[in-house]
Automatic annotation (TrEMBL), chain B:
The keyword Transcription does not apply. It is found in: Cell membrane. The chain crosses the membrane at residues 12-30, 37-54, 60-82, 133-158, 186-206, 212-232, 239-257, 263-283. PANTHER family: ABC TRANSPORTER ATP-BINDING PROTEIN, BRANCHED-CHAIN AMINO ACID TRANSPORT SYSTEM PERMEASE PROTEIN LIVH. It comes from Sporosarcina globispora. This is ABC transporter permease. Belongs to the binding-protein-dependent transport system permease family. LivHM subfamily. The keyword Ribosomal protein does not apply. GO terms for biological process: amino acid transport. GO terms for cellular component: plasma membrane. Keywords: Amino-acid transport, Cell membrane, Membrane, Transmembrane, Transmembrane helix, Transport. Its main location: membrane. It is a multi-pass membrane protein. GO terms for molecular function: transmembrane transporter activity.
Amino acid sequence: MRGVFHKVPLYWGLAILLFMLLFPFVNDTRSTLILLTQIFIFAIFAMSFDILLGYTGIVSFGHCMFFGIGAYSTALIFNKLDATLPNFLLGLGIGILLSALVSYIIGLLSLRLKSHFYAMLTLAVSQLFLVLAEKWRGLTHGGDGFTFSVPDIFKDRTSFYYITLFSVAAVFILLKLFTESSTGKVLKAISQNEYRAEALGYKSLHYKLIASVTAGVAASFSGALYAVSLRFINTNVFSIEVTLDALLMTMIGGIGTLAGAIAGAGIIEFLRHYLSELAMTYPIFERWTIILGFLYIVVLLGFPSGLAGFIKKFTLKKRRKEKRKREVERAA
Amino acid sequence: MEVFINLLVNGVSTGLLIFLLAAGLTLIFGLMSVLNFAHGGLFVWGAFSGAWIFKETNSFLLAIAGAIAIGMALGWVLERFLIRPVYGNHVRQLLITLGGMLVLSESIKILWGPNPIRVNLPGWLEGSYQFDGIIIIKYRVFVIVVGLLLYLALWLLLSRTQIGLMIRAGVLDKEMVQALGINVKGLFTFVFLLGAALAALGGALLAPYSGVVFAEMGMQYAILAFIVVIIGGMGSLQGSALASLIVGVAGAFMAYYMPDLSLALNMLLLAIVLLVKPTGLLGEKGSAV
């Protein structure tokens, strides 16, 4: 376990976890808990996207398909079968298997392509899933969607809050282990210079496939939680906006750091919540997406490493300054 | 027979509209290897501004001219402020042009509201021609004629003029052209504006054709244009024209006989081309692998 927290400020992580564990005792208003639950779910999704974008350097514009596959698998199981916990695990398992399969096939066919082609192809395939969900009305009820009931433990806001909190923590630790493993190091090498990694004898396609299946499985998990949190599903889970969310969260939080993805999810969901509340008084905020779009562009042009990169740079500078001060003192 | 001819006309006219979008994409890619995800945003801006000007002034020609002007202005902003700063970095180009797309299509919703807008045909293009019981809608013929003329104009521009020569040389070997003292960046701006104008024109022509415009349309047509550009071969104008016709006609027939599978067909075409000939039908440069 030491390896996990090797570089992360361990105490900070534990402090935040503790704070979040105690939070429902301090403030248990429904809307706050729902907002935080939503943040946790999207944090998992953003982390899964970051495995692709930040750690491997793959740009996928179709990540919503795994989110949607996970969401629909769980929703359909609850729709056809009883709302019990084993059935949730069944739906989750089906979603994860399907996502792994789909990401494997797509990766095998297209990960050899150059970045633009891969981005475009994933976008097109995700649109294909959207069309499939819209046309297969017998199963999905198309754009109208359907509601379903969930086990009691998911209905209670506080217990669901804890479930999602533990899920984030578990996914964070697992993905951290993954990125710190030897496979993760190869991925990092591929993101920096694919040709060099290949020349050193690492088959980049093989490693990229591992990354894409891992990301697909994690995204599917977050999709399943999302469906359960809403107790309703429609074809929106396959829309390009879901992919854009992941993109915004990882970019604003800082790519290449899992903590950044979580922070990004928090920032975006918070902004969304407050901006849509503002929209009730000032109708101009009704289209808050454009504000996020501008923010995204500004971050991309001005702070390409996001919030996490900004903090890292700041602390590094501070540390360097302190070091220099100490050296000056010693010299004196 | 009547159905066949009608579907063919539909397919060719849709194909030519897609070509207007794909032509800009393929030239921009060929010259600077920039894949512009915001291209669909210019297209949808062309559609909305064209429809709006037409409604206000009742002049279709003015609407087209206005749409092109707005498309070029937006294209200039995109090129200057989004694409130039990240030039040479593919991943950031992809990310930032997608952001541009988001802003363009959201601003449509702010200006014209989130609901689809109905668009009427201009009076002089309403109605249809009739030959031996075969009915052909006038506006589709108009789109085909305009599309073919534009293809011809682009072809002449590329093959007969000085600037066309520079563009073709730039597509083949950018560094060499630069070494010969030609301002490739300026050339790129020109091509980008040309592409933006074509995209906006395509949008303005599409609006009365489909009768209704909506903000999400940009992404839908952009995806079709991407598919066309890959099938035809990146950087090849002829390839794009050929692939546009294939996608348009195949789409029209599929939409009639198996409507649920029309997008799947395009994906299938794309997958086959990528697996069998990754450079596309007529492309030589810019292989996908």
